[in-house]
Design brief:
The protein is α+β, with helices and mostly antiparallel strands. Helix content is 19%, strand content 33%. It folds into 2 domains: 196 residues, Beta-galactosidase, Chain A, domain 5 (Distorted Sandwich), CATH 2.70.98.10; 114 residues, no CATH class. Strands 4, 5, 6, 7, 8, 9, 10, 11, 12, 13 and 14 form an 11-stranded antiparallel sheet that branches. Strands 1-2-3 form a 3-stranded antiparallel sheet. A hairpin with a 4-residue loop joins strand 15 and strand 16. The radius of gyration is 19 Å and the shape is globular.
């Protein structure tokens, strides 16, 4: 699961499972949490949205000499987000809409809530980041240079020119295919799936918050929430599950509703919070290196109020 903020910064990324420690947690600590940052000096954001009917994010920034669009997507498998392994692929495109722009990309990965930076190595044409429990491959049309433990690249682009970068943490069967086409296929999946409910944004977000290998619904895409004792929002709260199933059925998705109800039956009566397989949740732990008490459902005007939160979606 990933989040992109209004400045086109990938500020939250967890992989390969949503309940594992973050790779990027700049959402809660810009300095220690890392991020994939887009650098366009003296620019300002004029548009930040999901492409219509999809969860592909588009951010338009206007600078002194040109306008740039940043397009971000987490790839969806060709068959949709079913029980098979996800591609494990974040794709970013930078496109100059008007004029010209000198732009940069900075990749700052910080494993385990800011505790560890990767060890980057060049292996042939590949750039590999080795970190605790997860290896990530960086693919970029902007050849990056090392800046300490981080990678950065800059280039001058003219109107109509486009550059791409990608982070890959699994080895999908379609590795080596056209990543631009992968973004369009991901957008096409969301449009096709959402056509049943006239592309209701609530339905798309509910779909994104389902852990598809098991059918569990997570309460939040981030680590914890602030209304009461700290608890991991990326776990399954039993009180949410049937309400989510009912919401899917109301929106016209009986298959998703049945899938959640099958998970409920397997989970049984083991307690109010379960792991994504329906078992006992892991013990809570506090990370001293970074503040992970993320406020979701925050008041209007608070940037953290845009974090998807299941009880808000369910009303």
């Amino acid at each position: 699961m990933g989040l992109v903020d209004e400045n086109a910064r990938l500020c939250w990324l967890v992989a390969p499972r949503i309940d594992q420690p973050s790779i990027i947690s700049g959402l809660v600590d810009e300095q220690r949490g890392g991020g994939v940052e887009f650098v366009y000096p003296d620019s300002e954001t004029v548009v930040h949205r999901h492409r219509e009917g999809t969860l592909v994010v588009e951010t338009d920034l206007e600078g002194p000499k040109g306008t740039v669009r940043v397009i971000d997507a987490l790839a969806i498998p060709a068959r949709g987000p079913v029980q098979a392994a996800w591609p494990g692929l974040f794709i970013r495109q930078v496109l100059v809409l008007k004029g010209e722009a000198e732009v940069g990309l900075v990749t700052r990965l910080r494993y385990a809530y800011g505790r560890n930076a990767p060890r980057w190595r060049t292996e042939g044409r590949k750039i590999i980041g080795y970190g605790p429990g997860l290896t990530i491959e960086l693919q970029s049309e902007l050849p990056p240079r090392a800046y300490g433990v981080d990678l950065g690249a800059t280039t001058l682009l003219k109107e109509g020119e486009r550059r791409l970068m990608a982070l890959r943490w699994q080895d999908p069967t379609n590795k080596g295919t056209d990543l631009r086409q992968t973004v369009e296929e991901t957008a096409a999946f969301w449009r096709a799936w959402g056509s049943t409910c006239d592309h209701d944004p609530r339905a798309l977000m509910l779909k994104a918050m389902m852990y598809h290998p098991t059918g569990a619904m997570v309460r939040a895409v981030t680590t914890s929430y602030g209304d009461g004792p700290a608890a991991d929002g990326r776990l399954a709260w039993m009180e949410d599950q049937q309400r989510a199933a009912d919401a899917f059925r109301e929106l016209g998705y009986p298959g998703e509703a049945d899938y959640i109800e099958q998970w409920i039956a397997r989970a049984g009566d083991g307690g109010p919070i379960r792991d994504l397989s329906g078992g006992e949740p892991p013990a809570q732990a506090k990370v001293d290196e970074i503040d992970v008490d993320i406020m979701v459902g925050a008041p209007p005007g608070d940037a953290r109020g845009n974090i998807p939160y299941l009880p808000d979606l369910l009303g």
